[in-house]
Amino acid sequence: xxxxxxxxxxxxxxxxxxxxxxxxxxxxxxxxxxxxxxxxxxxxxxxxxxxxxxxxxxxxxxxxxxxxxxxxxxxxxxxxxxxxxxxxxxxxxxxxxxxxxxxxxxxxxxxxxxxxxxxxxxxxxxxxxxxxxxxxxxxxxxxxxxxxxxxxxxxxxxxxxxxxxxxxxxxxxxxxxxxxxxxxxxxxxxxxxxxxxxxxxxxxxxxxxxxxxxxxxxxxxxxxxxxxxxxxxxxxxxxxxxxxxxxxxxxxxxxxxxxxxxxxxxxxxxxxxxxxxxxxxxxxxxxxxxxxxxxxxxxxxxxxxxxxxxxxxxxxxxxxxxxxxxxxxxxxxxxxxxxxxxxxxxxxxxxxxxxxxxxxxxxxxxxxxxxxxxxxxxxxxxxxxxxxxxxxxxxxxxxxxxxxxxxxxxxxxxxxxxxxxxxxxxxxxxxxxxxxxxxxxxxxxxxxxxxxxxxxxxxxxxxxxxxxxxxxx
Length: 473
Fold this sequence. Notes:
Helix content is about 75%, strand content about 0%. It is mainly alpha-helical and about 475 residues long.
């Protein structure tokens, strides 16, 4: 290696102004982990060129490899400022450094705030979020364009950081005067309220969209889906509040007027059919289903999806066609979410007596209509009679879904005789713990005792989950 370095120095002595040689030789020696010499070449080339940004990409990697993170950050920020197309690549490198040394957030912040550069401010905000400092990140996004703020809101929605997402959407509402974006942000806020079961707040927000005449004008009527979505969501709230059937149907029928095409209209008809089936109005659902599938080719998506609603109807009335319809679902729409619903029903029904079957279907229908307490009560009655542990486990899931964590925890703490069910219940109890450190310890303890568990990947995720809020001030 000494001889190689000597040859490189001689070549550069003969060609002191050839910047390409500095780049190629620097990269060559860096690939052989000769970081000190390669850095010397990059810095000399930068000095000769009188370009302080030259080789920032290479030097960032060099400093990172040698653990000089502050210098690495400065070079990455230089590179990002001049090479905007490398945004995601440079952001990934910064996040990697922060995992090793989160104090470097100070360096990132100082450079970004002194630069006046929007891209650098965006990367600073995203790095703050990476460390779990969402509130401070949000304050930085306020100074960026509304699309950046919108993306931040969407990312936090996807990550389950709903309160931060809600605040971000509120900021979007403050920053924009575009009617379609305002309506979209209001829809997203309403989704958060519905998830939290804050139905009155959700309804108030959605009614603002409902009465917004600007998005109903021809220019925006079909540009945005907000008109349709707000009516579908208002219908869902009406179901959750157990409002009269005519209120629910009115919202859904209005939603149909804002669909883009016949396929979308029929999708909403399926929602009405589902409501009728869950409400026990089988004749209405059968008639509407037949009408909805008229003139549809067997290869059409609508026709294929019709198999699910035909299956639901057959199951509820005890029609022997249910099994063949389930087969059609698996053949035609195997990856669709409704296929999982059909399998779930089929799997449970096979294990129940005729009397238990009827009770279970009643509980299922009530669950679908958000009559949660009654649904859970019926399910618990089935367990008391049958001692079927899968029914007990489902009781736990239903309790958890409506926020009754105490009951859910009690159920999942049951000593299940089935090993797989018992391990799954243990996973549920660990996931329900609100303390990250305790979750990590419980997950680690489980894996020590059960290294071959089918749920090992899920337990490992808990061990390595990020601890929100652990940020250097």
